[in-house]
Amino acid sequence: MQTLLVIGASGQVGSDLVDALRKQHGEDRVIASDIREPETDRGRFIKLDATDTKGVEEAIRSNKVTQVYQLVATLSATGERNPMGAWKLNMQTLLDVLEMARDLKLSKVYWPSSIAAFGSHTPATDTPQNCIMDPDTVYGISKLAGERWCEYFHKKFGVDVRSLRYPGLIGYKALPGGGTTDYAVDIYHKAVRGEEFLCPLKSNTCLPMMYMDDAIRATIELMEADPDRISVRSSYNLSAFSFTPDEIAKSIRKYIPDFVMGYDLQPRLQGIADSWPNSIDSSRAAADWDWKPAYDLDRMSEEMILQLGKNLPAG
């Protein structure tokens, strides 16, 4: 029997991933942990500071954990306000888990990378699995360095670590967490509440995106794949679709015709977005472990509006 520990379980990915893992492995086999207490009692939880190395190791030992999902990170926009703090959080938490995986013989580790690991000299269209990567945000730099450490620990110590380069992720369970692509989450919240949305990016800024359900499914499929099928130990490219702010607004208007979007451009965010790819080639993931997205933009819009609408106050 496997016992899974999800570190950073209250974040955008973690809140969805924990639920999916519990459906697969059972409520008692998946332990959620975060520095924040959960808003609702949804199963086993440990209050844990991911930077507390001894505390993390004790949680792994005392609960006989066999797999760790290390999700903690300061995202791109937030990280630029405190670069050294973001570097310390993003890197030390990963290195701690990799060392524990080696020393405690964990069966698997999952750590997410990001399209932020690419950069201004990366091919922008159909970005290949292997290419120039020259990120200029602390988030992207930490993700690129983390990818190299993941591959190093696999090659040198046999740690079964697996990773995905997430595109912008869009889901309804958690609020935006300080990422450059978070406008594509906030826009749905504003639309469902009947409010105008002021977009921080130019109307033609095209970025790779993915509905959260696809991202969670990809994560689980990767972790369940036979080790012999995993040819990438840095991080796999992952893609579903790309769109611009203008295109997502048009998609929303298919379901909310009176939705209004204006612009309040933020040069700092625009600069980050301009350094990222506009589309991703995930053919390696498709070949190795049969990755295929299920959602396109319109299907995602329909689902986001439906789910967010359920939480609107009556009347």
Topology:
Layout: E1 4-7, H1 12-25, E2 30-34, E3 45-47, H2 53-62, E4 67-70, H3 76-79, H4 83-104, E5 108-110, E6 113-114, H5 138-157, E7 161-162, E8 164-166, E9 168-170, H6 183-192, E10 197-199, E11 207-211, H7 212-224, E12 236-237, E13 241-243, H8 245-253, E14 261-263, H9 267-274, H10 283-289, H11 297-309
Parallel strand pairs: 1-2, 1-4, 2-3, 4-5, 5-7, 6-8, 8-12, 9-11, 10-14
Antiparallel strand pairs: 11-13
Helix pairs in contact: 1-7, 2-4, 4-5, 6-8, 6-11
Account of the protein in words:
The chain has 315 residues and is an alpha/beta fold. Helices cover 41% and strands 14% of the residues. The chain contains eleven helices and 14 strands. The longest helix has 22 residues, at 83-104. The relative contact order is 0.13.
